[in-house]
Amino acid sequence: MIKSRYHITENVLIASKTYRLVLVPLSFRAEPEGSSLSFRAEPGGWSREICHGEFVDIALPGFYLRRPLSICDREDGKLTVVYKVVGEGTKALAGMLPGTELEVLTGLGNVFDPEACREEALLIGGGLGVPPLYLLAKELKARGKKVTAVLGFNKAEEIILADEFRAVCDEVLVSTVDGSVGVKGFVTDAIAAASPSYDFFYTCGPMVMMKVVCNTLEGPGEASLEERMGCGAGFCYGCSIQTKNGPRRVCKDGPVFKKEELLW
Amino acid sequence: MVKDLSVALCGFKLKNPVIPASGTFGFGLELADDMDLGVLGGISLKGTTREARYGNPTPRIAECPGGMINSVGLQNPGIDVLVNEKVPSLRKVYDGCVIANISGFSLDEYRECCAKADACEGIDLIEVNISCPNVHNGGMAFGTSAASAAEVTAAVKAVCRKPVFIKLSPNVTDIVSIARACEDAGADGLTLVNTFLGMRIDIHRRKPVIANKMGGFSGRAIFPVALRMVYQVAHACKIPVMGCGGVASAADVIEMMMAGATAVQVGAENLRNPFACPEIIAELPAVMDELNINTLQEIIGTV
């Protein structure tokens, strides 16, 4: 766990109430000759890699607790987070301009295991569960796996990252509940229609979606859970869930859990 | 001039008065990889009961202006795991004051757990939680009357050689009378205050935010109330007080000590900032210097 200061370089609306936030550590210095918002790494400024599946915990001025948000992408020290305005905190975050400084905890939680997949991976994301699968998709492709992504949304206006996934994955299936884009229905309908081959699946999305996915899909998989958190670092026990292996903290023992471990 | 941050607490010399409060720092081990625990004056371990408990359903946490509500419900692995595994492991990386925090649902449970904590070599002090507002049929009943608070104190003191601190609930009409009753029943010290019973409602869902409906409110917002209670109790009792409630800075620590606290516990602030305690300790000498304080011990109860 590392506490450090970042600044916002981008905070833009990409879908209904949904924003892409790009953060750069303050130890990364602006290039004087570049555009106003390009940065380069200071030596030692990036002491630990931020992995796929992990989340950051962002302190927002005026709000007591941090906001845990999953990491969508990282590149050259830049962190990309995709979040939806769901309450006062995320509403305040959406109003923050590039250049705003934020204090961020990184290095939290466990990660999806890309090695659990032998050859063919199936990624199943629902809504705001889609972003953390993006970094995983890149990681799986870098390891030479075949990757199929199934992305589910309520309606066209809520679709996020579909083009980004298409640029990385071998195949991308989109489903919308209202049928405005792709397969009409849920991610499970898109999977049933296309029957993609896979030997391991990874899922993140609403609990009800992940429950159906874990109960209906054959074979092993991993699910990344969400829970209201206190400390975000495993010592307040505010986000504990019951599993087949006893109580587990979503923030520290998770957020990624093996399908077999979860009680639905 | 070198500042002396040490304080004497029931025969122990703490290197400084800053102690993470029970429930906000796990069993210490959870943070051992992230910071040097050695800087902490003491550690109050997560509340422990006779049997292992999963605690309450989630959501267990609700944010509030200036604080938060928690309803973890005493999730813990049980007293045997505490004394046989958690404390010995912590002792490998920490040589400061280790405080076991004991909860119970009956006098027998308090007695049994405290006796086991007393027999555990790695534990220095025992803090008895008679005030946790989270659990049905729980500690609340003991902490809300002077007679039952005294009853727990006497029962626990009968089985302990180590100093026993009683952690008081603020959800009472007269905390001073309860503090006095504990002192008269043999308590070696008092920790105050625990959390304030609170509640939030999600107005969109029209349901309580916390699964268990209510929980304990803590955080910066409670500091003035906690300080007032520490002041009243410290001036009414002779036994030492650990002040707790909304402490978030070195200045808060000094304020609590001026009100009468010998040591100061930091609670909810750890959840906003896991490095709160080491940061407060690092900040203390400069704040002492600004206030012309050379020895922290000297300011206890000076107001």
Can you describe this structure in just a few lines?
The complex is a heterodimer of chains A (264) and B (303). Chain A has 264 residues and is α/β, with parallel strands linked by helices.
Distance between the termini of chain B: 24 Å
| Percent range for β-strand residues of chain B | 15-25%
CATH architecture of the largest domain in chain A: 3-Layer(aba) Sandwich
Number of helical regions of chain A: 5
Percent of residues in helices of chain A comes to: 10-25%
Q: Which strand order does the major sheet of chain A show?
A: 12-11-10-9-13-14-17
Chain-averaged pLDDT of chain B: 95
Q: How many distinct domains of chain A?
A: 2
Structural class of chain A: alpha/beta
Number-wise, the strands of chain B total 16
Stretches of chain A where pLDDT is under 50 for at least 5 consecutive residues are 29-49
Largest sheet of chain A: 7 strands, mixed
The strand order across the widest sheet of chain B is 3-16-15-10-9-8-7-4
Structural description of this entry:
- The complex is a heterodimer of chains A (264) and B (303).
- By secondary structure, chain A is an alpha/beta fold.
- Chain A has two domains: 2-108, Beta Barrel (Elongation Factor Tu (Ef-tu), domain 3); 114-224, Rossmann fold.
- Helix content of chain A is 17%, strand content 38%.
- Chain A is built from five helices and 17 strands.
- Chain A has helices spanning 88-94, 131-142, 162-168, 187-194, 207-216, and strands spanning 2-15, 18-25, 28-30, 39-41, 55-59, 67-75, 78-84, 101-108, 120-126, 146-153, 171-176, 183-184, 200-204, 221-224, 240-243, 246-249, 256-258.
- Chain A has a seven-stranded mixed β-sheet with strand order 12-11-10-9-13-14-17, with helices on both faces. Chain A has a six-stranded antiparallel β-barrel with strand order 1-2-7-6-5-8. In chain A, strands 3-4 form a two-stranded antiparallel ribbon.
- In chain A, helix 2 links the parallel strand 9 (120-126) and strand 10 (146-153).
- The longest helix of chain A has 12 residues, at 131-142.
- Residues 29-49 of chain A have low confidence and may be disordered.
- Chain B is α/β, with parallel strands linked by helices and 303 residues long.
- Chain B contains nine helices and 16 strands.
- In chain B, the strands form four sheets. Chain B has an eight-stranded parallel β-sheet with strand order 3-16-15-10-9-8-7-4. A four-stranded antiparallel β-sheet of chain B has the order 5-6-14-11, with no helix packed on it.
- Chains A and B meet through strand 15 of A and strand 5, strand 6 and helix 8 of B.
